[in-house]
Amino acid sequence: MSSDVSATQDKRSLHYIVRSGLAGGVAGCLAKTVVAPLDRVKILFQASNPDFQKYAGTWSGAFRAGSDIYKSSGARGLFQGHSVTLLRIFPYAAIKYMAYDQVHHYLMPTRDKETNFRRFSAGSISGLISVLFTYPLEVFRVRLAFHTKFPEQSNNSLLRSFKQIYHEQATDSRPASGLTPNTNYYFKQYPILKFYRGFSATLIGMIPYAGVSFLSWGYLRARFLPPPKEGKIKSTPVADLTIGAASGAMAQTASYPFEVIRRRMQVGGITQPNRWLQWGETVHAIWASSGWRGFYVGLSIGYLKVIPMTAVSFAVWQSGKRFLGVIV
Fold first, then answer.
1. Is the Cβ–Cβ distance between 271 and 281 less than 8 Å?
2. Phi-psi category of 2—alpha, beta or left, where left has phi over 0 and alpha has psi -120 to 50?
3. Which of 70, 98, 178, 210 has its CA 20 to 30 A from that of 128?
4. Is 25:90 a contact under the CB 8 Å cutoff?
5. Model confidence over 190-209: pLDDT tens digits?
6. Per-residue pLDDT tens for 54-84?
7. Which of 135, 104, 127, 312 is nearest to 209 (CA)?
8. What is the DSSP string of 235-254?
9. Are the C-beta atoms of 145 and 49 separated by less than 8 Å?
10. Residue 65: which of 85, 46, 45 has the closest Cα?
11. Are 214 and 119 in contact (CB under 8 A)?
12. Alpha-carbon distances of 37 from 95, 248, 276, rounded to whole Å
């Protein structure tokens, strides 16, 4: 066996790691582009944008909201914030898939070592690693998508968003704000913390989302694909799309309430510029205004977005690794 072929089979080799990450980054970008308009509408629903609350809660409302955005801002409005999404999603997806391959190999070096708990753990760990390094770009993306004016008519460029977040001050020290003088001190001393609004909710939500996603992916592949030959499962793009779609649906259901909480906290600097919204305060506000249904606002459009996005992401990742000569 040649050294090149051997390198593709060794998941610890630089050859494998780089190509797995590259395939993952491209897969993430293509998947996000496919669902970018739906993602814009979903963010407006989750963050309770006052101009679009009348559309929330129904399947048709998502399409009516998209139609309104198109009428007022054209196709560009449907992709508002997408450039920042691509800047974020390439490293995010690259790190996530690359980390998953490495953690999976460490926890489950052979098929007989695979368990659902280990699949869940591998997915959760890879998701946490990726979001840690790319979260500030996620905040930029949500801020840009939250604005409903045409890009040139509002202060929502990347640079302006950066300056706005950097100069936001959480000066309200009332008990309801959950802030202490010591907390404000850290925000002033370490402004980078301002770019991690909603990070705690993201970390908590990432555990069920990435965990269930990769658990479902691994389990369904092992359950429904033909028995492996020479230790490798043989798959097809259609099978990858189908299993990826199912994995996305289950992951979205398990993690959606955390996503709603995260969106509210991320746009807190816009809706309440003098407040630093805390986890408990955000949960209480959602419950007080809408009850348990408030934690699932926009879930229907969430399915419309996540199912095709996850299907494309997994399928392109696998196809990319095949194209790059990485044996899976």
1. no
2. beta
3. 178
4. yes
5. 667 777 777 877 788 899 99
6. 676 666 677 778 778 778 778 777 787 787 7
7. 127
8. --HHHHHHHHHHHHHHHHHH
9. no
10. 45
11. yes
12. 25, 18, 29
Higher pLDDT, 186 or 290: 290
Asked whether the predicted pLDDT for residue 169 surpasses 90, the reply is: no
Residues counted in the chain = 328
User: Cα(107)–Cα(109) distance, rounded to whole angstroms?
Assistant: 6
Rounded to the nearest 10°, the torsion over CA 310, 315, 318, 321 is -100
CB 32 within 8 A of CB 322: no
**Kind plus residue range of the DSSP H or E element containing 134:** helix 116-146
- CA nearest neighbour of 314 among 102, 27, 38: 27
For residue range 235-263, what is the model confidence (pLDDT) as tens digits? Answer: 888 999 999 999 999 999 888 888 888 77
- Using CA atoms of 282, 196, 200, 208 in order, give the dihedral in degrees to the nearest 10: 110
User: Rounded distance, CA 109 to CA 114, Å?
Assistant: 8
Residues 121/220, Cβ–Cβ less than 8 Å: no
Q: Is residue 13 exposed (0-12), middle (13-18) or buried (19+ Cβ within 10 Å)?
A: middle
CA dihedral of residues 107, 2, 326, 126 (deg, nearest 10): 30
Contacts of 235 (CB under 8 A, 6+ apart): 221, 225, 318
Q: What is the per-residue DSSP string for 1-40?
A: --HHHHHHH-TTSHHHHHHHHHHHHHHHHHHHHHTHHHHH
Tracing tokens 């805390």 back to the chain, one arrives at: 278
Average pLDDT, the chain: 78
Alpha-carbon distance of 286 to 53, in angstroms, equals 14
For the whole model, what pTM was predicted? 0.74
